[in-house]
């Protein structure tokens, strides 16, 4: 499981990084990015909470990663 952040939609509020800093961080330009990490079961719940808590819906699960 991996996630992607739509940079056109992200407002850089930082909620995702506050909820799950193992997966999300705020870049130097002030917007969220998903780290290139594979999410294990212990982090999965927090990453999903961060995705669901994004006020603009900018975070999506990268489904193509699962199919590789």
What would you say this structure looks like, in words?
This protein has 68 residues and is an alpha+beta fold. The protein has one domain: Alpha-Beta Plaits, CATH 3.30.70.20. Helices cover 32% and strands 18% of the residues. Strand 2 (24-26) and strand 3 (32-34) form a beta hairpin. The radius of gyration is 11 Å and the shape is globular. The N and C termini lie close together (11 Å). The mean pLDDT is 93.
Sequence-ordered SSE layout with sheet pairings:
Blueprint: E1 3-5, H1 15-19, E2 24-26, E3 32-34, H2 41-53, E4 59-61, H3 63-66
Antiparallel strand pairs: 1-4, 2-3
Provide key terms for this protein:
single chain, 68 residues, alpha+beta, Alpha-Beta Plaits, two-stranded antiparallel sheet, 3 helices, globular
Short summary:
The protein has helices spanning 15-19, 41-53, 63-66, and strands at residues 3-5, 24-26, 32-34, 59-61. The protein has 68 residues and is an alpha+beta fold.
Major sheet size, sense and barrel closure = 2 strands, antiparallel
Q: Tell me, what's the shape?
A: globular
State the name of the first-level CATH class.
Alpha Beta
Count of discrete structural domains? 1
H and E string = EHEEHEH
Task: Predict the CATH topology.
Answer: Alpha-Beta Plaits
Pick out the low-confidence regions: none
* Shape-level CATH architecture: 2-Layer Sandwich
Biggest sheet, spatial arrangement of strands: 1-4
- The percent range for strand residues is 15-25%
């Amino acid at each position: 499981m991996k996630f992607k952040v739509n940079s056109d939609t992200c407002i850089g509020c930082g909620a995702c990084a506050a909820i799950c800093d193992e997966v999300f961080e705020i870049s130097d330009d002030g917007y969220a990015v998903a780290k290139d990490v594979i999410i294990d079961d212990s982090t999965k719940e927090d990453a999903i909470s961060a995705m669901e808590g994004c006020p603009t819906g900018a975070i999506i699960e990268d489904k193509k990663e699962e199919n590789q």
